[in-house]
Amino acid sequence: MGRYRAPEPPKTAIITPRGSARLRAELSHLWKVKRPEVTARVAAAAALGDRSENADYHYGKRQLAEIDGRIRYLDKRLRTLQVVDRKPTDEGLVYFGAWVWLEPRDDLEQQKMLLYRIVGPDEIDDDPAYISIDSPMAKALVGRRCGQEVSIVQRQGDSRLLTFNATTKDSVFDIVRIFYGERDGF
Predict the structure, then answer these.
(1) β-strand 114-119 against 130-132: which pairing, if any?
(2) Of 52-56, 81-85, 121-125, 182-186, which gets the smallest average pLDDT?
(3) Pairing state of beta strands 98-104 and 168-180?
(4) Once rounded to an integer, what is the mean pLDDT over residues 142-160?
(5) Domain-by-domain residue ranges, the chain?
(6) Any residues with CB less than 8 A from the CB of 34 and at least 6 apart, and which?
(7) Tens digit of pLDDT for each residue in 100-142?
(8) Is 46 exposed, middle or buried (0-12, 13-18, 19+ CB in 10 A)?
(9) CA 61 – CA 42 distance, rounded (Å)
(10) Minimal CA–CA distance to 27: which of 87, 81, 68?
(11) Which end of the chain is more exposed for a tag (fewer CB within 10 A), N or C?
């Protein structure tokens, strides 16, 4: 008997116009280019005869199943997503689609400013500066103004390594600037 895993909470169904275009392009590429290529490869492998020991056939079928799963996911997700293409009425507050400059308060020797954009959960892999609207960091930022202080709990040390004695600390940031639009606009 396997371990029970609670279902993931539903993702927020909003996306930027650029993110929507990227998902639509991926769906089109999978449906019109990738799937026909793999289908032709599977058909050619099946024509060779014995399928029980044909690695090309089995690999192609597995790859076709992955492509079909991704196509189903993208098709369903694109139907439920709402494209947010308007700026908020008050551009002085942090909302969806905002670029936010943060300055760490407790790291005075480096004075390294951080830049993040709050986007939908389906587009965070486009750019390392993108953070999901569902993330704890974005939730702490939404509704704040320039000059306000934001406290975010972060792991000390390398966040990629997981240890049992990892400690966390509150990192305090000041919101320096808020901008709406594309990155090349600043």
Answers:
(1) parallel
(2) 182-186
(3) antiparallel
(4) 75
(5) 14-83, 98-185
(6) 67
(7) 998 887 755 556 888 999 999 999 888 888 999 998 889 999 9
(8) middle
(9) 7
(10) 68
(11) N
- At residue 83, what are phi and psi to the nearest 5 degrees? -80, 120
Which tokens belong to 40?
């032709």
| Structural tokens at position 108 | 């005075």
Q: Quick check: 134 and 121 in contact, CB under 8 A?
A: yes
CATH class of 14-83: mainly alpha
- Residue written as tokens 């694109």? 78
What is the chain written as a DSSP string? -PPP-PPPPPPP-EE-HHHHHHHHHHHHHIIIIIHHHHHHHHHHHHHTS--TT-HHHHHHHHHHHHHHHHHHHHHHHHHH-EE--S--S-TTB--TTEEEEEEESS-TTT---EEEEEE-GGGTTS-TTEEETTSHHHHHHTT-BTT-EEEEEEESS-TT---TT--EEEEEEEEEEEEES-GGG-
Q: State how far the Cα of 118 lies from the Cα of 149, in Å rounded to an integer.
A: 17
Q: What CATH architecture does domain 98-185 belong to?
A: Roll (3.10)
